[in-house]
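Lecture notes, continued. The same structure-token format from the folding unit now serves as the input rather than the output. Read the line below as a description of shape only.
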């Protein structure tokens, strides 16, 4: 399975939108980069589906353009005018050449889901490897009204409990993708650090 960040060259703020190539071609999130649908078209003529981790604007800003270009199925937890399939905790979604379990992970957003296979984790914003706060295991911000650090901590524990020991690649909504290092850091290690840091209950960005 090949995973391509189609927003890697964005000049405006966006999430990471990932094109997953394989037997079933799927875009995880659409981002806010103008022209993202054209970048997707550089890699495939057909897009089977878009899976939305959550509906913050930086994740769905270009969803209309992607749907207009490719007419894919659209999977999301919460209602959306373009949604064709509702996601629920424990559902399975085929992406690329892997089968992913949907894990409901609220806290950063009420409709947040993560996607876990035997090898890969698409974590949206609930868990990232590096950002402006931490470089090797961080968690989604919860300082906006409607967000909850307590719910996010619970979601991180749920994600850890349901993370197969074989997972070796992390594709987060922000920051860099990460793969297990031979004899070194692993996705599970980074997730455990994210939990420990979130449980300090200190501001993620103290200067804000």
């Amino acid at each position: 399975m090949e995973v391509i960040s189609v927003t890697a060259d964005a000049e405006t703020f966006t999430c990471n939108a990932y094109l997953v190539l394989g037997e079933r071609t799927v875009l995880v999130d659409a981002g806010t980069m103008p022209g993202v649908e054209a970048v997707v078209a550089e890699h495939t003529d057909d897009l089977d589906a878009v899976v939305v981790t959550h509906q913050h604007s930086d994740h769905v800003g270009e969803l209309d353009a992607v749907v207009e270009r490719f007419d894919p199925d659209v999977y999301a937890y919460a209602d959306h005018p373009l949604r064709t399939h509702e996601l629920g905790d424990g559902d399975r979604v085929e992406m690329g050449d892997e089968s992913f379990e949907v894990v409901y992970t609220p806290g950063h957003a009420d409709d947040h889901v993560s996607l876990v296979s035997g090898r890969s984790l698409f974590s949206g914003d609930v868990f990232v490897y590096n950002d402006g706060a931490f470089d090797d295991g961080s968690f989604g911000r919860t300082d906006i009204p409607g967000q909850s650090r307590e719910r996010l901590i619970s979601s991180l524990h749920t994600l850890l409990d349901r993370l197969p020991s074989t997972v070796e690649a992390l594709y987060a909504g922000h920051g860099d993708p990460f793969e297990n290092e031979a004899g070194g850091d692993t996705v599970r290690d980074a997730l455990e650090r994210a939990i420990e840091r979130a449980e300090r209950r200190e501001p993620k960005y103290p200067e804000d």
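Point for the exam: The chain has a mean pLDDT of 96.
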